[in-house]
Amino acid sequence: MDSLDVRSTTVPEHLAYQERNRKLGRYIGVIGLQMEYKGKLGEKFKLLHVDPQTLKECAKETGWSCEILKNENGNYLVKIFK
Q: What DSSP string describes 1-41?
């Protein structure tokens, strides 16, 4: 699985979005998206980016393990296994 550690950003707009998520009781890595193509809007959906520490904790709590295989500039690749 690949993901992005959103905590690694220094972009003010991204930091503001994360703070808004916190204030709304949401995890900071939940991102709302809507695609548009040739003027047509798709349905809104949410994308989840989980930071490595939270992923490891959740995996452990549910009987899984994970190993970070690659981590560069906040982008990471992880192996999740029983």
A: -EEE-GGG---HHHHHHHHHHHHTT--TTEEEE--EETTEE
Token pair, residue 56, equals 């490891």
Tokens 């998520």 found at: 21
User: Which residues, listed in sequence order, are joined to residue 3 by a DSSP beta bridge?
Assistant: 76
Retrieve residue 11's tokens.
């972009």
pLDDT tens digits, one per residue of 44-74: 999 999 999 999 999 999 999 999 999 999 9
The domain ranges of the chain are 2-81
- Number of residues written out for the chain: 82
| Total-model pTM | 0.80
